[in-house]
């Protein structure tokens, strides 16, 4: 087995140990409890916002929580002296938690719409949005020693990443929100439930721009990990 496959297997085990899988299932159940009583038309309008919120929970909060668990157990500091590379370490987290997020998104969509939705834009939006939120959550947790220190500063990146909801709702129509990489996944969620039509350039933007932003966040995560975990600044 490769180092990455071993790390990925460990991440799935840690999801169970840290109760992240249980928390994800509970989150999905709560979203269903909120959506199912709604009329079908209202449900289709609300569901993209729900999926964006779920990305925040599974993406931002789950990976930050995992980082703090590992800091408390001193496994992050021990990682530096192991053969496991940073890329393999972070990729295993991203793959495992993205898998959880996509499965939850699809199950919530099936639970509320049956098969009456477009699965391709839903899955693409869930993958891209989750990766963005995961990397943002990982970056936000690295400088802090405890959840209590981290919690209030974390409000800012969460708020910024959720600003596209204002544009989607028609409350703040400005092209500046296209600079926020979660705008693309939200547009794809709208397509998934046939409540928003987008042009070719918007579809291209919705896929390409989040990928470019994820690449930049990955590079930044490498630098910050070296700064706070390797050199201990």
TrEMBL record:
Q: Which residues cross the membrane?
A: 20-37, 49-69, 89-110, 122-144, 150-169, 199-221
Q: Does the keyword Lipoprotein apply?
A: no
State the InterPro entries in the record. FLQE3_permease (IPR056926)
Pfam name, any one:
FLQE3_permease
Keywords for the protein's UniProt record, in alphabetical order: Membrane, Transmembrane, Transmembrane helix
What name appears for this protein in its UniProt entry? Answer: Fluoroquinolone transporter permease
Organism encoding this protein: Kibdelosporangium philippinense
